[in-house]
Design brief:
Number of helices: 10
CATH topology of the largest domain: Rossmann fold
Distance between the termini: 31 Å
Largest sheet: 6 strands, mixed
Structural class: alpha+beta
CATH superfamily of the largest domain: P-loop containing nucleotide triphosphate hydrolases
Helix content: 25-40%
Number of strands: 18
Strand order of the largest sheet: 6-7-8-3-9-10
Order of helices and strands: EEEHEEEHHHEHEHEEHHEEEEEEHEEH
Shape: elongated
CATH class of the largest domain: Alpha Beta
Number of domains: 2
């Protein structure tokens, strides 16, 4: 394992940021720390970097106990959300900075900077100032600067959070390709479910200072450990006592079996390639179903129609908490707005 976190705890006054956290981060992989704001993910990243000191526990990087090592001796590269560029320096000098303070030979610095500018597609902007770059270009410059010193670990704290949706999508595709080329152990913090599911090899879900689940994107989405993970990693709705993905519900105009739940269509909304169907069951429970446009046209539904619902065989479900019926729709909207 590249990074071993064992029993790490951190308090800020009375606030418990991390509560006895233990996790192994594999070498050479791209791992996402995913969770809500204030959940502890950025604190954990900063402890790995040495920018925060844990109150308890141990941090090991590539077999070396780094718990008491200062940041400059951990051989990690760190990229912040807001670039942290040297505004008076050119792109080339920004990328070269870490090598210069390590007093590397000038020829070595020039060759490494040229290599990285080519890697991040900024060679034509080498002599510009950061203010003359777009947000996406500045973030690529920050990544090149972090990689310049050939770190053992690359740490990214919400690297695309300050960018608009289109640029964010382009950059995360680029980050995945870059990681595959460079092959450095990478850990990035995000609260964006789609970003983690699309980019990461492994996801660590953190909430209230504790780890809820660790696994591959498929593991977490298809086999959530609990109610929180189910809700956080995508849209959910509730049918009976079960939380379920809206696209894992089957809907028909005729009953198919004794487990069907009958309801009435109360609203139909098109959301891009999906159709969202709001149904109220005979017991008064609100349920959300999503289908493709072709599926919807085949059903021939309209508001007021009687429908029959069932959970598709093999679909992931979790037992719903008592408060779930009041928040199912809100959770769906939150997830939809995040992806």
């Amino acid at each position: 394992m590249s990074i071993e976190i064992a029993g790490v705890g951190k308090r800020f006054g009375d606030f418990v940021a991390l509560d006895n956290v233990s996790v192994s981060i594999p070498s050479g992989r791209l791992t996402a720390l995913l969770g809500p704001s204030g959940g502890g993910k950025s604190t954990l990243l900063r402890i790995i970097a040495g920018l925060e000191r844990a109150d308890t526990g141990r941090v090991e990087i590539e077999g070396v106990d780094a718990t008491d090592l200062p940041p400059q001796k951990r051989n990690v590269g760190f990229v912040f959300q807001h670039y942290a560029a040297f505004k008076h320096m050119s792109v080339r000098r920004n990328v070269a900075f870490g090598l210069q303070i390590r007093k590397r030979p000038k020829a070595e610095i020039a060759a490494r900077v040229d290599e990285l500018l080519h890697l991040v597609h900024l060679e034509q902007f080498a002599d510009r100032l950061p203010a003359q770059l777009s947000g996406g270009q500045r973030q690529r410059m920050a990544l090149a600067r972090a990689l310049a010193v050939k770190p053992t670990v690359l740490l990214l704290d919400e690297p695309f959070g300050a960018l608009d949706a289109k640029v964010r999508k382009e950059l995360r595709d680029w980050l995945r390709r870059l990681h595959d080329e460079v092959e450095v152990t990478t850990v990035f913090v995000t609260h964006d479910q789609e970003e983690a599911l699309e980019v990461a090899d492994e996801i660590v879900v953190i909430n209230d200072g504790r780890i809820e689940q660790i696994g591959s994107p498929d593991d977490l989405y298809d086999r959530p450990a609990n109610d929180f993970v189910m809700r956080f990693l995508g849209p959910v709705t509730q049918l009976g006592d079960h939380l379920v993905r809206p696209h894992d519900l089957q809907i028909s105009t005729t009953p198919t079996g004794p487990d069907d739940v009958t309801g009435t269509v109360t609203r139909i909304t098109r959301i891009g390639f999906e159709i969202r169907i709001d149904v109220t069951t005979t017991t008064g429970q609100p349920v959300i179903v999503t289908v493709t446009r072709n599926e919807f046209l085949a059903l021939g539904l309209d508001t007021g129609a009687t429908v029959h619902l069932r959970i598709a065989p093999g679909s992931p479900t979790t037992a719903a908490a008592p408060a779930a019926p009041a928040t199912a729709g809100a959770d769906h909207d939150l997830a939809a707005s995040s992806i």
